[in-house]
Each structure stands twice: as C-alpha cells, then as structure tokens.
Amino acid sequence: MAVQVEPAAIQVPASGGNVSLQLMNGNPEVRFAFKLKSSNNEHYRVNPVFGFVEPGAAAQVEVIRQNGPPKGDDKLEICFAGAPPDAGTPRLSSLLDLRASSRSTFLWLLHEYGSGTI
C-alpha cells in the first residue's frame, strides 16, 4: 500500500485525550488525497478531515477523544485516492469520489479504563 498509517492502533482514555497520526506516502511520484471517517462521531473528532499527502512525504492528523463511555468497536476509516498535482482542495475535488477509485485502511480505536485496556 502506498499510504501507511503510524501508529497502526491508538489507545486513548475514555475520559478524553489527543493522539497524532502520521499518514506516510511511500510513493515518490503520486500525490494522495485523504478523507477520515469515524464510526463514533459523538466521541471522536479528527483534524483535518480532508487533506493531501505529497509524494514521499507525511501528513499529520490529530484524533481527539471526547469524554464518554468506552465502546469496544470504534474505528477510524482512512480513505485515500491518487490526486492530480494541480488539485487545489481535497474536499471539493472530484478525486474524492471515494466509491469509485479509492482504497481504505481501518484503524481500531482502543480505550483505556482503569489499569487495563480493551
């Protein structure tokens, strides 16, 4: 896969917290657009939701967990598609017609509570 996500899983307190992700483009010639989707929009925010990862570079995404009860099945979907070099805004670009030409990776959102994890 041309875009890798680090870390592959994140762990945040159910009481809230922030984690940074790196989206790394291993392709030296292709620019990728990305979009993030959460299975739990009530407790998670991401910034930015849309963006580009330039060839051979990385983009940082902040995942913010709001205080709330832990759930065991939360996940973050990261959709990405090749983007032309002159594409200006990933949100408005037709390249983000994610049904047709994209790939996705999933990141499980694990919650800490007490001294253990789920």
From TrEMBL:
Domain MSP residues, every copy = 2-118
Pfam families linked: Motile_Sperm (PF00635)
TM spans (from-to): none
Sorted alphabetically, which InterPro entries does this protein's record hold?
Ig-like_fold (IPR013783), MSP_dom (IPR000535), PapD-like_sf (IPR008962), Sperm-specific_class_P (IPR051774)
Query: What is the protein's name according to its record?
Result: MSP domain-containing protein
